[in-house]
Amino acid sequence: MVAPVISARSLTKRYGDLVAVDGIDFDIEAGESFGFLGPNGAGKSTTMRMIAATSTRTSGTLTVLGMDTNSHGPEIRAQLGIVPQGDLLDEELRVIDNLVVYGRYFALPRAYVKERAEQLLDFAQLREKRTARVDGLSGGMKRRLTIARGLINNPKVMLLDEPTTGLDPQARHILWDRLFRLKEQGTTLVVTTHFMDEAEQLCDRLVVVDNGRIVAEGSPSSLIRAYSTREVLEVRFGAGRNEAVASSLQGVGERLEALADRVLIYAADGEQALQRVLDLGLDPVASLVRRSSLEDVFLRLTGRSLIE
Amino acid sequence: MSADIRFDTSTHTDIGKVRRWGWWGVVEHRALLLRSYWTTMLLTGIGSPFIYLLGMGVGLGVLVDGGQGIEGVPYLTFLAPALVMATAMQVAAQENTYGVFGGFKWANTFTAMRLTPMSPAQMAVGFQVSVLLRVLPMVFFYMAALWTFRIGEPLRVLLLLPLGTLLSLAVGFAVMAWVATQRDERGQLSFVERFVIVPLTLFSGTYFPLDTLPGYLQPIGWFSPLWHAAELGRTALYGAPMGAWEGVLHIGFLSVLALATAMLSMRTFRARLDD
User: Fold this and answer.
1) DSSP 8-state code for residue B188
2) Which of A82, A154, A181 sits opposite B115 (nearest CB)?
3) What is the CATH number of domain A6-224?
4) What keywords sit in the KW lines (chain A) (predicted)?
5) Considering only alpha carbons, which residue of chain B is nearest residue A178?
6) What residue spans in chain A does CATH classification 3.30.70 cover?
7) Taking CA A292 as the corner, what is the angle to CA A291 and CA A293, rounded to the nearest 5 degrees?
8) If both were cysteines, with which of A62, A236, B61, B152 could B237 make a disulfide (CB 3.0 to 4.6 Å apart)?
């Protein structure tokens, strides 16, 4: 059996009294696209920083590419591509210079870095912005530049912390496409996200994290199978009425979640469930049948919505 | 459609090379940033030495030399090496206040380097070397002015370069060690300039020999890197008398200050960059 690229056992990080990461275990295999899905403050970014060996763990074990993160930070980062949440680009420098300067921190030969930077400009679709200053780029462009920067050293593993947070839908799709290409070429991707669609798009396997703990693990589809029904019926009864109506909907589906703005009815067949709602003489203002998503899994596991 | 990225499996990060040369990346990075300021640098670089030396020489110098100069040399000759060192100190301090603070907070320089195999210690050292990119041109322009005004012996003028370097490292690391501990900017960064650099310039025997100060103010000079550098500069430039042990003391003070504050800076960088 091939040793995992990243392996954590009872991994814990405390900041004073606050337990940010509370004894988690996971293994990430080579070539896999692995996700940490959870709301803000769940401990995802802290975990990423520990993997990048820029944050010292409080206890437990963590190895990346077979090396202990507490003792081999530089050796580990030499083989990682890191895309931090805040980009951390040098806004005063030109686009191309951001790539070159960064490559030199890996002590890579100047000629090599320059050639690679040009290739990465194409990959990140930033060719026409080559000599533009970074502070004039859009959010999506900055994000792509950050990903390009992370690729300068031919990393075996890419760490992407909230890769598309703050981007518009089109920019997100361009970015996902770039990440797919990396995955196809065998790069191991480790992604944190609080977007269920991103997790579904990008991850072969993921862990759902909440309050520093892993509450479930599996592929997106297996998690949905395990923790939700095939379909979901969303019905809205108008402001303030949803929770009141919910009691009379018991038994319509397999399970029911009453939210402030709508009631979710979990059922194998959403249309059939809707018919039963109408048969009860209830008249929803709006209704929608959709497939179950990771959002539903999260709601089921934690009783809360991902984006609050 | 754009090209896909080719994966070159032959080139990988050589960690040994990073350990030896990583700091040089900081120097290259900062050199690129200076590129947009080079006209300003050139103008102040050429302008200020000439204005200072001319003003002091034809103004204050005439007044002082009306007596008989200082230490047997014209006032301008006495003043020049100290002015060069004072400039080196000012530039080093300035770069290390906003440059270092900004590297953590505004420009992301250190926080981004943290994502690479660079160690925090290398960042501190690399940054300090990069400060010389600002300090040494200033020293050089002063040297050119000294040659132009025929102050000091032409060859001995060259000695101001290594002295300026040593002073820049000592002052630079000292300021860095403090600035790196500062989390928020509430105006305290400008204290360095106003309450440290300016007083040091005034009480370090820059404009007059230290022993003309009342005895209780002289200790400021003894602990001032500028005084030690200025004394060395005077001996270097025109052979101001200095005992061998005095020389050792001056160089020793600056070296120990540079080394001790360098260690302190590296420790602070390490602590600050571990989150």
Assistant:
1) T
2) A82
3) 3.40.50.300
4) Antibiotic resistance, ATP-binding, Cell membrane, Membrane, Nucleotide-binding, Translocase, Transport
5) B4
6) 229-291
7) 115
8) B152
